[in-house]
Amino acid sequence: RPSQAQAIGAKDPRICRTLEHWLPLLDEPRVIFAVRNPLSVAHSLHRRDGLAVEYGLALWFVYNYEALRALQANNVRFCIVNYDKLMSYDVTEKDQMQEFLGLQGIDTSLLERKLQHQRFETSDVHQDALIEGLVARFWEMLTGDWPDYRAFSGAYKSVCGLYQPFSDLADQAN
What we know:
This protein has helices spanning about 15-20, 40-50, 55-75, 85, 90-100, 135-140, 155-160, 165-170, and strands at about 30-35, 75-80. By secondary structure, it is mainly alpha-helical. It is built from eight helices and two strands.
């Protein structure tokens, strides 16, 4: 880790699965939690990897649940931003990040919209027949005023029990 760095960042959805192990290694971490529309994620995984959309929705739920649980269980300061709004250069998302991090002039030119092949709107989450109530409610909670993972603990264990390789996670869940 560079000693002069004001901030470092990493963008990889898989960090959600290991976040609880990274957090103790960081001094006073502040996390920007970019949340992407579950339909965008599921359809992107379907297009790229051939995964069933339903499985992609389960992945989205598990990854986001685990990240939120790790942040809240470790009392980490975090700020949730809407990835789709950020990719459309929404000034409010950029301003929210800058204020939270205490930084000015965050360069969003690195965001390449052309790499965003699957894009759904927030309203689509409620109109798509593939979305069960669970994913829609979790999306609403994440994009609401103050998310709390604990209300979804039972659902997390159920989803882990239905989809491999998540079944082992349900046994380890708090």
